[in-house]
Write a structure and sequence with these properties.
Helices cover 46% and strands 6% of the residues. The chain has helices at residues 2-28, 64-77, 81-87, 97-107, 110-120, 124-133, 143-148, 168-173, 188-205, 210-219, 221-233, 247-264, 293-300, 304-310, 334-341, 363-369, 374-380, 405-427, 441-447, 452-459, 481-491, 520-527, 531-538; strands spanning 282-285, 327-330, 352-356, 393-397, 432-434, 472-474, 509-513, 551-555. Helix 6 (124-133) packs parallel to helix 9 (188-205).
């Protein structure tokens, strides 16, 4: 009888739990019928062959199916996401001075925590769901605090980008495309998938040691593997705390453990975290064609800033012509968006006009006529050059509002390295040249893309002075100016938001004299400012004609 009662109780509990799960889905996703709700980008990886000792026994470990029920139960007991995060911590505590030091810094900078977790409110619930679905330690959901302060437009000196700070090579390795239109490293969903895939790979590589996996995420698995091999060969401990790793990595892991400790017991440090709802904030909407993002914002009743906050991977005015076309939208905006999109034809999703190319017309001439960007026209129409055939029909973007400054900076970071890379290939030359018999200053200068005057000045020689065979001439004092500019830009990091600054220094004003063929659009691109800004500084109408010799003021 007692056994029967227990079995009945267990059965009733399971039924209640499953019904709670169903009611949760219908409450969180009220518009699921109109648009598909965000689902995992790809299935969770199989359980690792070697698991860390601190995981619970196999029979109580959370499986992807069980995590849904746990999610529903957590929602009933507490609607604060921070409580759910605390329940999922799995990494053991360590008594280390390095953790205490990092903890003191966080506790003494509540303004940093406030900014960081205010941004995290948009993305953290989705990340928590993914970490929980994979059965991984919830500490990993806090990694974007350390990596980017939850700023999706964060960009580092090493060209790492996004919430999870992928460098270009690692991004490509984990299937994050980086194109003129789109950077998967800043895609909230795809970068989370890639980051957790990478962390799982590192966990398996280092035989279930999560500290080594986290260290490898910072400096690469090769760096950690070499440190482990060195200690193992010397008979020393291979725990994280005993390895010789880069200074940044030795601080990186303690930062995460300090953040975990702070989230676990904020009262002890005089910190109070504002509650974050333990429910999804956004859903993914799939479209069949390219869409103007400013139009998408209007259809959803959002501001331009709001649409780019959830879709930071797009750094142009529209989604790419070849996709992806999916957008993340707040759940409470789905119904309005779907209703509005249903009233439009696919061709109405892009605000463009049609232009038929006339004889002798080039892409630059068409761009100037519509005050557009020639590069944008070429990309939008999938053209390989600036030359056009008479009668060709071009799609030309209609005039649109300026993009948010973060998006403009992201686009500039895509454009500048490409130009610099091509330029560097042409300008590469040896540091020192050994003179061969019969060579002259002019021959050597020409071969190395230098002027005779430059070469003479670098080596302290006079014009007409003869060279000796075997003599060494310096070629390295003249640096590539575009490379210098790129390096300079990459070092200008905003300490509050971890964003690169624009290429114009603060409070700097320039005067530009208009040359033949220039437009407001081309001048704006040159100085990396907007047409609206130039118009405001000079009290111009965006349609007012410019004349050769006219002077314009360009400010920061």
């Amino acid at each position: 009888m007692r056994i029967s009662l227990i079995a009945s109780t267990l059965l009733l509990s399971c039924v209640l739990a499953l019904s709670a799960c169903v009611s949760l889905d219908s409450a969180i996703y009220p518009y699921a019928a109109q648009a598909p709700v965000l689902t995992a980008a790809r299935p969770a990886p199989p359980a690792p062959a070697v698991l860390p000792e601190r995981l619970p026994p196999a029979e109580t470990r959370i499986t992807p199916a069980a995590s849904v029920i746990l999610s529903a139960q957590s929602t009933e007991s507490s609607n604060d996401l921070m409580d759910r995060i605390r329940e999922g911590f799995l990494i053991e505590e360590f008594d280390q001075d390095a953790i205490d030091s990092q903890l003191a810094w966080f506790a003494n900078h509540p303004d940093y925590l406030d900014r960081t977790f205010s941004r995290a409110a948009l993305y953290l619930q989705y990340i928590v769901e993914e970490v929980e679905r994979r059965g991984m330690p919830m500490e990993l959901a806090l990694l974007p605090v350390i990596e980017s302060a939850f700023e999706p437009y964060a960009y580092s000196r090493s060209r790492a980008s996004g919430l999870w700070q992928f460098i270009p090579g690692t991004g490509k390795r984990f299937d994050l495309p980086q194109t003129w239109w789109y950077d998967g490293r800043r895609d909230v969903v795809e970068s989370t998938r890639a980051a957790l895939d990478y962390l799982q790979f590192l966990h398996d590589t280092f035989e279930g040691d999560w500290l080594l996996a986290i260290a490898g995420y910072n400096c690469g698995e090769g760096c950690v593997s070499r440190a482990v091999a060195k200690n193992r060969a010397a008979g020393r401990s291979i725990e994280f705390w005993d390895l010789r790793l880069p200074t940044e990595t030795r601080a990186y892991v303690p930062k995460l453990l300090a953040m975990k400790r702070l989230v676990l017991s904020p009262d002890l440090f005089g910190i109070a975290f504002s509650p974050i709802p333990n429910e999804p904030y956004f859903a993914k909407v799939h479209l069949d064609k390219q869409i103007d993002l400013n139009l998408a914002a209007q259809l959803a009743g959002l501001t331009q800033e709001e649409i780019f906050e959830l879709n930071p991977a797009f750094h142009r005015w529209a989604t790419p012509p070849d996709g992806p076309f999916s957008l993340l939208l707040p759940l409470d905006a789905l119904e309005l968006f779907n209703n509005n999109v249903a009233q439009l034809d696919a061709d109405d999703l892009m605000r463009v006009t049609r232009h038929t190319v006339k004889k002798y017309e080039t892409i630059n001439m068409v761009a100037a006529r519509y005050d557009a960007n020639a590069t944008h026209l070429r990309m939008l129409n999938k053209l390989e050059s600036n030359f056009l055939s008479e009668g060709t029909e071009l799609r030309v973007p209609l005039s649109r509002s300026d993009l948010p400054s973060k998006v403009v900076r992201a686009a500039a970071l895509v454009d500048t390295p490409e130009r610099s890379s091509r330029h560097n290939k042409k300008r590469q030359r040896p540091q020192v040249h050994v003179v061969r018999r019969g060579e002259s200053i002019s021959v050597i200068a020409k071969r190395n893309n230098m002027s005779v005057r430059q070469l003479l000045k670098i080596n302290g020689k006079r014009a007409g002075q003869k060279l000796r065979a075997g003599e060494r001439l310096k070629l390295s004092n003249v640096r590539n100016s575009s490379e210098d500019a790129l390096n300079s830009n990459s070092k200008k990091i905003n300490s509050k938001d971890n964003l690169t600054q624009t290429s114009v220094e603060a409070n700097q004003t320039a005067k530009h004299t208009i040359r033949r063929g220039e437009t407001l659009s081309s001048i704006a691109r040159r100085y990396k400012v907007s047409i609206a800004q130039i118009s405001a500084w000079n009290k111009l109408s965006t349609r007012k004609k410019l004349w050769v010799g006219q002077k314009l003021i360009i400010k920061n």
